[in-house]
Amino acid sequence: MTPTPMRIVHCVRAPVGGILRHVRDLATAQAAAGHDVGLICDSITGSAFDLQQLEELKPHLSLGVERFPMKRQLTIQDLSATWALYKHIRDLKPDILHGHGAKGGAYARLIGTVLRLRGKKTARVYCPHGGSLHYDPHRLEGRIYHTIERFLRPLTDGLIFVSDYENAAYESKVGRPRALTRIVYNGLTPAEFNKVEPRADAADFLYIGMLRDLKGPDLFIEALYNIRLKTGKAPQAVIVGEGPDAERYKTMVDKLDLSGSVRFEGPMRAREAFEMARTVVVPSRAEAMPYIILETVAAERPLIATRVGGVPEIFGRYANRLIEPGHIGKLTIAMEEALANPKAQEAHAKELRSCLAETFSVELMSDRITTLYQELHGLKPIDGQALGTKTLGNDIAGAPTAFARTGNR
Predict the structure, then answer these.
(1) Superfamily of domain 191-354
(2) How many angstroms separate the CA atoms of 402 and 253, rounded?
(3) What sections of 41-177 are H helices per DSSP?
(4) Taking every annotated instance into account, which residue ranges of this chain make up the domain Glycosyl transferase family (predicted)?
(5) What is the DSSP string of 214-251?
(6) Is the dihedral of CA 366, 372, 376, 377 positive or negative?
(7) In whole angstroms, what is the distance from residue 282 CA to residue 70 CA?
(8) What is the pTM for the complete model shown?
(9) Regarding beta strands 277-282 and 203-208, do their DSSP bridges make them parallel or antiparallel, or are they unpaired?
(10) Pairing between strand 123-127 and 379-381?
């Protein structure tokens, strides 16, 4: 029996980076499964690279891709933005309104609540993707955002966390979830598990990601400088990506006299960037479940990463290889070791790739999330047809399951 098709609308503020990757893969998989899917995102954020991905997504989504201005910070303009979003979403008549990130999650839950008050059976689903959970609960900004999260908690029907770490962070900073909850890891496509070989002229190191301090490119640059101080020669490095602090990092490279060793490239697909260097460095200060770590491990590229967020869950029994976040000395030592013994790095990459769980797949990610949607709409496994062994509770296991409607929320 085919699961009942649903009308699903995803809402995310910034269509960039890993959050765009997650929404794109999820929406495409849901559309391919026969659901009507739409996407709403910010109209003032995103590079040509990001906009191209949105254009590629449009033909797959029957409910369209629409963009509205959405500020990152809380402003009075949020009132007019919410009204414009409400009118658009109301006309789409969604069964599921799925918010991604702090701002997208707030819009989805507030608008979904208004729709429910007007008699609609819209289920409100939220995935933080780190977002407000990255803030320090002891600082003013953190207290504000976590208070907002607590206010929105009773307006939430379904919660999806991309790692055990994110689930724990929500419980400690916001409170125990009241909604139906799942932990669902980000997923990759089968093609991404093919090994990538570096080019003959590959640089020593690659940083790829958002150019903002949270991701640690400043630490990467400083480690390169430290190596030059010790050896008299800076390693060759490539920095791939874009972000609000890009110009500051370029200035930092110039001031440290690293311009001859470090080059900046714009955003590009990860597997293309992997060919440009022998070792990938991800020096993040905070993460939830970073795609770039998954992509690097699946491509069997040597990797230096920090012990943040859900990264230890990816590394599994090799988590002892992760380094302390924000510790420039340990990052420098790890990069020196990579230069001194590249064969050991290749062997480590092969070991890590071999233990990458099947859990990290787009198919399973989409199935687990869509299963939560179906449960929210009163669907349960048909006797004798359930293919998975777990369908309830806060777990990450599961497989495609047949459902029948039993009633509406």
Answers:
(1) Glycogen Phosphorylase B; (3.40.50.2000)
(2) 55
(3) 48-57, 77-92, 101-117, 140-152, 164-173
(4) 192-349
(5) GG-HHHHHHHHHHHHHHHSSPPPEEEE---TTHHHHHH
(6) positive
(7) 29
(8) 0.88
(9) parallel
(10) unpaired
**Domain 7-187+361-405 maps to which CATH number in 3.40.50.1370, 3.40.50.2300, 3.40.50.2000, 3.30.360.10?**
3.40.50.2000
Angle 225-284-333 (CA atoms, 0-180°, nearest 5)?
A: 40
Q: Cα–chain-centroid distance for residue 186?
A: 7
Token representation of residue 213: 């301090």
Residue among 3, 8, 34 nearest 125 (CA): 8
Ordered by start, the domain boundaries in the chain are: 7-187+361-405, 191-354
Local structure of 178: helix, strand or coil:
coil
Tell me if domain 7-187+361-405 and domain 191-354 are identical in fold.
yes
> Of 222-226, 355-359, 388-392, which gets the smallest average pLDDT?
388-392
- pLDDT tens string 72-131: 766 667 777 788 899 999 999 999 999 999 999 999 999 999 999 999 999 999 999 999
Pairwise CA distance, residues 256 & 104, whole Å = 39
Rg of the chain taking only CA atoms, in angstroms: 22
